[in-house]
């Protein structure tokens, strides 16, 4: 059972830029619910892949009806692990994110793949999947539905946050080229502003 | 961005700066010159791992990419 979410979207930025922005996306105007961010593990493998683990703490925002039923849960923030593998040979970043606590109430596992296809160098394809489940007897369905709805709104914020980080990077790159061609620079900065178009997400129960 | 360890944020910032530079200028360009940030990382980790223990954050022993094994398409 549980809820499944799937979405594919194109980010109008080269893969290398998306990856650089990926590490720098916090804080951003859309991430006020993210309280802390720490890298707790990092390793370069013999075949030159980068493994990382990040620990995030986020606020635990529940709807009123859930707050009434689970008052104890409000006290603690949610601890979230994000494991990632950067494979520069195949231009692929795979991330897996899930919550360490509050997992009986609800577990959300999210897998993202950011892929830069060689024949589309200015685009990065993002494939996002999530599995949402609840172990609470008798309430799993409304909890899962709440979880899915919060996940959807969070992924919109996550995309905006990533695009914000990308814009900042492009802006600072454009500024460092500032010189006699100041008009050209501002034109370039405009064209580099990333935008994404989403396809309609599919949902399966 | 703050670290989960209140006193670790400065160490985190220094490490992040070093990493971001190395990542964009060396790693992504295929230069295998080695990680210049290991010392900064060690100092940062000493601080943050202590905070993780103090706050009882259940991350120790969690397998890398653990939940991925049970998901289709992994």
UniProtKB/TrEMBL annotation, chain A:
<feature type="compositionally biased region" description="Basic and acidic residues">
    <location>
        <begin position="177"/>
        <end position="190"/>
    </location>
</feature>
<feature type="compositionally biased region" description="Polar residues">
    <location>
        <begin position="192"/>
        <end position="205"/>
    </location>
</feature>
<feature type="domain" description="PRELI/MSF1">
    <location>
        <begin position="2"/>
        <end position="174"/>
    </location>
</feature>
<feature type="region of interest" description="Disordered">
    <location>
        <begin position="173"/>
        <end position="205"/>
    </location>
</feature>
<dbReference type="InterPro" id="IPR006797">
    <property type="entry name" value="PRELI/MSF1_dom"/>
</dbReference>
<protein>
    <submittedName>
        <fullName>PRELI domain containing 1b</fullName>
    </submittedName>
</protein>
<dbReference type="GO" id="GO:0005758">
    <property type="term" value="C:mitochondrial intermembrane space"/>
</dbReference>
<dbReference type="InterPro" id="IPR037365">
    <property type="entry name" value="Slowmo/Ups"/>
</dbReference>
<dbReference type="Pfam" id="PF04707">
    <property type="entry name" value="PRELI"/>
</dbReference>
TrEMBL record, chain B:
<dbReference type="GO" id="GO:0045332">
    <property type="term" value="P:phospholipid translocation"/>
</dbReference>
<comment type="similarity">
    <text>Belongs to the TRIAP1/MDM35 family.</text>
</comment>
<protein>
    <submittedName>
        <fullName>TP53 regulated inhibitor of apoptosis 1</fullName>
    </submittedName>
</protein>
<dbReference type="GO" id="GO:0005829">
    <property type="term" value="C:cytosol"/>
</dbReference>
<dbReference type="GO" id="GO:0005758">
    <property type="term" value="C:mitochondrial intermembrane space"/>
</dbReference>
<dbReference type="InterPro" id="IPR007918">
    <property type="entry name" value="MDM35_apoptosis"/>
</dbReference>
<dbReference type="Pfam" id="PF05254">
    <property type="entry name" value="UPF0203"/>
</dbReference>
<dbReference type="GO" id="GO:0005634">
    <property type="term" value="C:nucleus"/>
</dbReference>
<keyword id="KW-1015">Disulfide bond</keyword>
<dbReference type="GO" id="GO:1990050">
    <property type="term" value="F:phosphatidic acid transfer activity"/>
</dbReference>
């Amino acid at each position: 059972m549980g809820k499944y979410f799937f979405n594919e979207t194109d980010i109008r930025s080269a893969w290398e830029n998306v990856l650089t922005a990926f590490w720098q996306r916090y804080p951003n105007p859309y991430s006020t619910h993210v309280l802390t961010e720490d890298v707790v593990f990092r390793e370069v493998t013999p075949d030159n892949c980068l493994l990382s683990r990040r620990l995030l703490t986020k606020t635990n925002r529940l709807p009123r009806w859930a707050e009434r039923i689970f008052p104890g849960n409000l006290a603690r923030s949610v601890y979230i692990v994000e494991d990632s593998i950067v494979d520069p040979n195949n231009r692929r970043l795979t991330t897996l994110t899930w919550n360490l606590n509050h997992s009986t109430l609800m577990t959300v596992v999210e897998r993202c793949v950011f892929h830069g296809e060689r024949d589309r160098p200015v685009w990065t394809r993002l494939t996002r999947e999530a599995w949402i489940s609840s172990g609470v007897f008798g309430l799993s369905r409304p909890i899962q539905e709440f979880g899915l709805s919060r996940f959807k709104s969070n992924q919109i914020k996550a995309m905006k946050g990533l695009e914000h980080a990308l814009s900042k990077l492009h802006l600072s790159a454009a500024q460092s080229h500032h010189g006699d061609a100041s008009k050209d620079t501002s034109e370039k900065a405009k064209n580099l502003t990333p935008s994404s178009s989403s396809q309609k997400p599919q949902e399966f129960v | 961005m703050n670290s989960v360890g209140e006193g670790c944020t400065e160490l985190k910032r220094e490490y992040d700066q070093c990493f971001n530079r190395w990542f964009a200028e060396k790693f992504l360009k295929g230069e295998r010159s080695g990680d210049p940030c290991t010392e900064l990382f060690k100092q940062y980790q000493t601080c943050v791992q202590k905070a993780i223990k103090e706050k009882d954050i259940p991350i120790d022993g969690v397998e890398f990419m653990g939940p991925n094994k049970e998901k289709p398409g992994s």
